[in-house]
Specification:
Keywords: Electron transport, Flavoprotein, FMN, Nitrogen fixation, Transport. The longest helix is centred in the last third of the chain and has 15 residues, at 155-169. The strands form 2 sheets. Strands 1, 2, 3, 4, 5, 6 and 9 form a 7-stranded mixed β-sheet that branches. The chain has a two-stranded antiparallel ribbon with strand order 7-8. It is of the alpha/beta class. Helix 1 (15-27) packs across helix 5. It is 29% helix and 21% strand. Bound molecules: flavin mononucleotide. Flavin mononucleotide (FMN) is lined by residues 11-16, 56-61, 64, 89-91, 95, 98-100, 148-149.
Length: 174
């Protein structure tokens, strides 16, 4: 039987995969099924009404390569009644003009498919030039913003603050 939450991620150098494991461990055993989109794309996604997606940005504002390979699968998704939360990885110093762009692109596609986003995250505490992952008013990211290159020391605390918010929005807390 599927767990209540499906977590789909892609990862080239392992950072997003590692964060996905940490998020799953915090959520708890039996609560989340992990899928690397490099294996079977988004196969199985229809089994879940609560979804988490992990996506790093690569190559000056592009999707990570495994996400890019399966991006067309997003075209046929219909997700009314589904809630989703995103976490994105990027490098705000090295790629300051494109920080977390891919997370913003994925957010828009999922919202267009009818799903409801949760787990937005404040912009304070980051230093970059531009990002497609910001809300229209620029005050928040559309998901958890992580940076294993320039702010690695912040990651655990950010995850620990974000996961309970997402579980509450999913109706799974307490
Ligand atoms: C060649 C290259 C291009 C990158 N381009 C971006 C980018 O445009 N925007 C960004 O926020 N991060 C960028 N990054 C940083 C990666 O997103 C970051 O290292 C991330 O943690 C990688 O995650 P992964 O190990 O799961 O693939 C880039 C890194 C490299 C090496």
């Amino acid at each position: 039987m599927p767990a209540p939450i499906g977590l789909f991620f892609g990862s080239t150098t392992g950072n997003t995969a590692e964060v996905a494991e940490r998020i799953a461990a915090l959520i708890g055993p039996g609560q989340v099924d992990l899928f690397d989109v490099a294996d079977n794309g988004l196969a199985g996604i229809d089994d879940y009404r609560l979804l988490i997606f992990g996506i790093p940005t690569w190559d000056f504002g592009e999707q990570q390569e495994d996400w890019l390979d399966i991006w067309h699968e997003l075209d046929s998704l219909e997700l009314p009644g589904v809630r989703f939360a995103l976490f994105g990885l990027g490098d705000q110093i090295g790629y300051a003009e494109w920080y977390l762009d891919a997370m913003g692109m994925l957010h828009d596609r999922l919202r267009d498919a009818g799903a409801e986003p949760v787990g937005y995250w404040p912009r304070e505490g980051y230093d970059f030039e531009a990002s497609k992952a910001l809300t229209a008013d620029g005050s928040r990211f559309v998901g958890l913003a992580l940076d294993e290159d320039s702010q690695r020391a912040e990651t655990d605390a950010r995850i620990e603050a974000w996961v309970p918010q997402v579980l509450e929005a999913f109706g799974l807390s307490g």
